[in-house]
């Protein structure tokens, strides 16, 4: 469960960076 929470947090961070234009996919 802890691992799942960490993965979710990382995904949310990446999503935020993508929306901010910091990461180009």
UniProtKB/TrEMBL annotation:
Protein name (database record): Uncharacterized protein
Superkingdom of source: Eukaryota
Organism: Arundo donax (Giant reed)
